[in-house]
Amino acid sequence: MSIGSANETTADPVPMFHPHAPRPGDPVPHIPSMAHYRAMYEESVTKPDVFFGKLAQDLLSWHKPFNQVSHGNFHEGNISWFVDGQVNACYNCVDRHALVNPNKVAIIWEADEMDHHRSITYGEVLAEVSRLANVLLKYGVRRGHAVAIYMPMVPEAVYAMLACARIGAVHSVVFAGFSADALRDRMLDAKCRLLITADQGKRGGKTIQLKNIADEALAECPAVHTVIVFQRTNDKSVPFHPPRDIWWHEETSNQRPYCPCTPMNSEDPLFMLYTSGSTGKPKGVLHTTAGYLLGATATTKYIFDLHEGDVHACMADVGWITGHSYIVYGPLSNGATTVVFESIPTYPNAGRYWDLVDKHKVTSFYTAPTAIRALRRLGDDFVKPYDLSSLRILGSVGEPINPDAWMWYHAIVGRSRCAIVDTYWQTETGSIIITPLPGCTPTKPGSATLPFFGVDVAVLDPQTGEELKGNGVTGVLAVRNSFPSIARTIYDNHARYMDTYLLPYKGFYFSGDGVSRDEDGYYWVRGRVDGTFHSLFESTQDYIVRLLTSRSAPLDVINVAGHRLSTAEIESALIKHPACAEAAVVGVPDDLTGQAIVCFCTLKSSDLDNKTLSAALTAQVRAHIGPFATPKRIIITPDLPKTRSGKIMRRILRKVAGREVVQEDLQDDAILKIKLGDLSTLADPAVVALLINSVADRL
Ligand code: WTA
């Protein structure tokens, strides 16, 4: 079965944008034509060992060369690459450039304060990273130990990651917008014994009390014996508890500015990064050293078409995978200059990004559709005053980009002469897997276009798992055959890795996203499958759940402003509130953020009015997860729609929350049935009216 033809969603003729010839003075792209792309792609999927063997030798510096390129497969879940080789990620990102070109700028730091920026050379990065690595060694961190990093967007966050990589420690960066509870859960799960944090963070003129939040988390993490505190603001009121707490500046100043790199086996873990899964418990996606580094290095080189002198500015936070791969590992491994941006796109005004591009002569710029949409709304006048002529490549990541936002990015920011790269990938894939190549791939606004080298994309029938061959098909996005940067496991829970990614469709990696392949073979990623195709996928979900050994449903992940959130995680935050009896959370379409969070809650008895309760429940979610998970609406309702077996029917909640069914529809059963689908499994049909009325009350 196919779930609709690609043409349904791309009915209007889509303009094709053909690459321009390079401007005089601009470099010739690394992949100069579609013929080159096709030949390389063909080799990469038909002879992956030959292709990646060569690439790994060309792009990485090895402590010990490998003989075997790949081993294992998706059937067995035992993927490994370059197994008998040895490599160090920090050596590749720092030393090999610092040793030949110590004065080249590695990092440009653009602080939250508009007039405050700093350039740091590769030579300086080597010294700073070494000093910190020596501090880690002094406090007992050894190869294989997990280190938590909870830092603002300062160069020291990058040093912290690289210092871990240098000595073989496994970093677990926790986004600085996460709450104390979330930080605690992640430190406990990873069994961290050391935390690197800062006194405070600055963002959009606001101060974030990082050390206070960390202290709250640490109260329940007795295993963390050392906390390295970087002074960002030097606010004297920040609590400091020796001997557990030590100052970054004091400790590093006592250390030698060189620390030898530990040669790591290719498959030694490099880092873990927690991402939302379908259950309340976040999963620690684990990436290994050589494969991840190769993926990050190769994609950055080819997709941002890096050449000598280029300045790459990725606006993500190092707390997300985009920051790991495209602020830290990818650009630095290529010896490029990378921008670390501490602020937000609208501070002090909506020209901030463009001021940054102009000031630092940025050549490739990478951000999320949510930011593009928000800036577009604020008007072109914020873009116009700036000289953006340094830009060659504009990237988008994190969610589907709607054609209007794409066109604005292209015409207003790119002045119709930059390559737009809509890059599709995930925390689990480690690096970009579907993308145009600048100067090479003709683009269509809204399509991530074609697979990157080595990624053999398959569109599967969600129910039968059969591959939908040919063009003009829609189904679930899967990948056949492993590629170097794919995550190897979920930390301490390989069964969950198998259940989530490799068992739903035997022999394939299952992405959790829906996708269309149009008549030209271009991919259109539709987002997490529970969102876009919910009416169909409710049954698919049942199907997949049946396949799985675990009790978890794999698809309840929503994407809000490019951040992946689990509905179950938000629900478990809500029901911790004493007044909340039951909670069901759904994503609804939102013009700005792609999807927004709507929470339905039933109450235990409570004296509070609904407005006060909604505020309290919102605060509960912010405290449990973080401010970026703030619900758009909390709907207090007398009941939730359930099947006779007690399963919440989210399909109904989504439609009610998205106002696809309204009070007038209650008059007509036939209309209700058309809009809501089959309601025969609903235990109490009266609940539909209750819900619709609760939503109407709330407006
Ligand atoms: C979505 C972020 C459409 C998708 C790198 C995926 C996208 C999830 C795109 C991963 C894109 C990412 N077009 N959807 N270009 N890029 N997504 O793990 O649903 O935070 O599964 O990784 O974001 O989010 P994650």
TrEMBL record:
<dbReference type="GO" id="GO:0016208">
    <property type="term" value="F:AMP binding"/>
</dbReference>
<dbReference type="GO" id="GO:0005524">
    <property type="term" value="F:ATP binding"/>
</dbReference>
<dbReference type="Pfam" id="PF00501">
    <property type="entry name" value="AMP-binding"/>
</dbReference>
<dbReference type="InterPro" id="IPR032387">
    <property type="entry name" value="ACAS_N"/>
</dbReference>
<protein>
    <recommendedName>
        <fullName>Acetyl-coenzyme A synthetase</fullName>
        <ecNumber>6.2.1.1</ecNumber>
    </recommendedName>
</protein>
<dbReference type="GO" id="GO:0005829">
    <property type="term" value="C:cytosol"/>
</dbReference>
<dbReference type="InterPro" id="IPR025110">
    <property type="entry name" value="AMP-bd_C"/>
</dbReference>
<dbReference type="Pfam" id="PF13193">
    <property type="entry name" value="AMP-binding_C"/>
</dbReference>
<dbReference type="InterPro" id="IPR045851">
    <property type="entry name" value="AMP-bd_C_sf"/>
</dbReference>
<feature type="domain" description="AMP-binding enzyme C-terminal">
    <location>
        <begin position="569"/>
        <end position="647"/>
    </location>
</feature>
<dbReference type="GO" id="GO:0003987">
    <property type="term" value="F:acetate-CoA ligase activity"/>
</dbReference>
<dbReference type="InterPro" id="IPR000873">
    <property type="entry name" value="AMP-dep_synth/lig_dom"/>
</dbReference>
<feature type="domain" description="Acetyl-coenzyme A synthetase N-terminal">
    <location>
        <begin position="37"/>
        <end position="93"/>
    </location>
</feature>
<dbReference type="InterPro" id="IPR042099">
    <property type="entry name" value="ANL_N_sf"/>
</dbReference>
<dbReference type="InterPro" id="IPR011904">
    <property type="entry name" value="Ac_CoA_lig"/>
</dbReference>
<feature type="compositionally biased region" description="Polar residues">
    <location>
        <begin position="1"/>
        <end position="10"/>
    </location>
</feature>
<keyword id="KW-0547">Nucleotide-binding</keyword>
<keyword id="KW-0067">ATP-binding</keyword>
<dbReference type="Pfam" id="PF16177">
    <property type="entry name" value="ACAS_N"/>
</dbReference>
<feature type="region of interest" description="Disordered">
    <location>
        <begin position="1"/>
        <end position="27"/>
    </location>
</feature>
<dbReference type="GO" id="GO:0019427">
    <property type="term" value="P:acetyl-CoA biosynthetic process from acetate"/>
</dbReference>
<keyword id="KW-0436">Ligase</keyword>
<feature type="domain" description="AMP-dependent synthetase/ligase">
    <location>
        <begin position="95"/>
        <end position="482"/>
    </location>
</feature>
<comment type="similarity">
    <text>Belongs to the ATP-dependent AMP-binding enzyme family.</text>
</comment>
<dbReference type="InterPro" id="IPR020845">
    <property type="entry name" value="AMP-binding_CS"/>
</dbReference>
